[in-house]
Amino acid sequence: MTATQSAAPAAPMDSPELRRRDWLTILLIGIVHASSHFFQLVLPSLYVSLGAAFNLDFARLGLLVSVFYVVSGFGQASSGFIVDRIGARPVLWFGLACFVLSGVLIGAANGYAMLFVAAVIGGIGNSVFHPADYSIMNHRISPARLGHAFSTHGLTGNLGWALTPVFITTITLLSNWRVAAFSAAGLVALVLLLTLIGRDLLGGKLPVPSESEREPDARQTPAAPAPAEGVWATLTALLSRPALWGAFLFFGFSSIALSAVQNYTIPLLGELYDLSRVVASSALSGYMVASAVGMAAGGFLVSATPRTEYTVTVALLMAGATLVVLALGLVPPGWAALVVGLAGFCSGVAAPSRDMLVRRVTPKGATGSVYGLVYSGMDVGSALGPLSFGILLDAGMNHGPWIGAGAAFALAAVLAQWIAVQARKTTRPLAVA
Fold first, then answer.
1. Contacts of 264 (CB under 8 A, 6+ apart)
2. Which letter does DSSP use for residue 218 in this model?
3. Cα-Cα-Cα-Cα dihedral sign, residues 40, 292, 243, 26
4. Distance (Å, rounded) from C-alpha 80 to C-alpha 131?
5. How far apart are CA 266 and CA 279, in angstroms?
6. What's the rounded mean pLDDT across residues 21-32?
7. pLDDT tens-place string over residues 190-209
């Protein structure tokens, strides 16, 4: 291609119509991602109510969330391949529909078995979002705005987490926990309706420059499904890379820490600092909002240094230390909620640098598959954390969840350094049949 030819697409790539379409797609995917994070905290936000209604201890309540993430982990590891074969849009609709059904089952539950089924269905739905979201962004967003898409994706996810405790607690206090669960299902149903209305933003033919005019990286309509042997060859090649295993473990330990905060901050603030459920719920929401603010701040650090692993390490060690200080009761009760927010800010600062670090070890031609495999580490950690920390609480170890979170953040910080070392060693492209 000549210089004249390569310059030709510049005008249509920056056309007002394309910019409008990009931002509408970014907004819609952001809303979808927020709804997925919102639903992840529905069960934890109902712990107190469900425990009282069905006489459940923390171990059995934690098991529900563990089942949710075990199912999600298995599903996420494979859903990236499914997205590549049938497209992201129908997979995304399936995930949202599963959330709606799960919320309805929680609200109608007559015992633990029904809650268990709801957790399984919710986990199936949760498994599709990262592969589907990133596939849509890579295929539908112009290169000039792809960075904004990734940033918005992360921020809206945290805002979804921040909404859940306040949403569920407020409706529970105004009515009851069943109405709160049905309301959560209704909110996700509204998001599903939005994706149906905006279906053209998520798939179909792009009314923009032809394939020859677009960057070959990923801004194209997905190609025809690859044969089955190509999937297995890609999977084998990916699993042979130590850096991706390190990234898997990194997300696993990070999620163990986050699960302690999400699932047990409300009861811990009540037991250790004598804060009301409303104040404790607000503190958990504050953690998520502060984490989103930290992500925005951390975005500037990504461009400030190429050694993003240093940012990840320092930020996660600070987040872990803050939670340990809380666990030891060294914070005055009036400051406890603010210190929870400080931990959220530190963990959020690490997120953009973390994403850039993982990008460094992602082979070309396997983006969707890598997102599915690596992000399944999140589900593994989120499955192990709630049950393990619930057992500690039932055994009377009230400091356990926050101390465990601090240790998990420290291990993730060490893994960030190891991934960086592997990234410098691994420069060859992925070789598949």
1. 58, 389, 390, 393, 401, 402
2. T
3. positive
4. 5
5. 9
6. 92
7. 999 999 999 988 876 555 44
CB 68 within 8 A of CB 36: no
Amino acid at 246: G
Tokens in use for 181?
Answer: 């669960």
CA distance 58 to 62: 6
Separation CA 217–CA 237 (nearest Å): 20
Both tokens assigned to 244: 């991706």
- Listing DSSP states for 285-318 in one string gives HHHHHHHHHHHHHHHHHHHH-S-HHHHHHHHHHH
Model confidence at 327, in pLDDT bands (50, 70, 90)?
very high
Cβ 30 vs Cβ 153: under 8 Å: yes
List all residues 6 or more positions away from 26 whose beta carbon is below 8 Å from its beta carbon.
137, 141, 145, 148, 149, 152
Cα 103 from Cα 185, distance rounded (Å): 5
For CA atoms 16, 191, 148, 340, the dihedral sign is positive
Residue type, position 4, single letter: T
Give the orientation angle of helix 177-197 with respect to helix 143-174, to 10 degrees.
150
Alpha-carbon distance 278 to 197, whole Å? 36
Mean pLDDT of 242-264: 85
pTM: 0.71
Structure tokens that stand for 317 in this block: 């060690």
d(CA 372, CA 82): 10
- Distance, in Å, from the CA atom of 417 to the CA atom of 396, rounded to the nearest integer, reads 35
Q: What is the pLDDT of residue 93?
A: 95
pLDDT, residue 238, reads 55
DSSP string spanning 1-65?
A: --HHHHHTTHHHHT-HHHHHHHHHHHHHHHHHHHHHHHHHTHHHHTHHHHHHHHT--HHHHHHHH
CA distance 388 to 62: 8
3-state secondary structure of 121: helix
Q: Which amino acid is at 137?
A: M
Q: Tokens at residue 135, please?
A: 């596939």
How many C-beta atoms lie closer than 10 Å to residue 196's C-beta? Answer: 12
148-180: pLDDT as tens digits = 777 788 888 888 988 898 899 899 999 999 999
Using DSSP's 3-state secondary structure scheme, residue 214 falls into coil
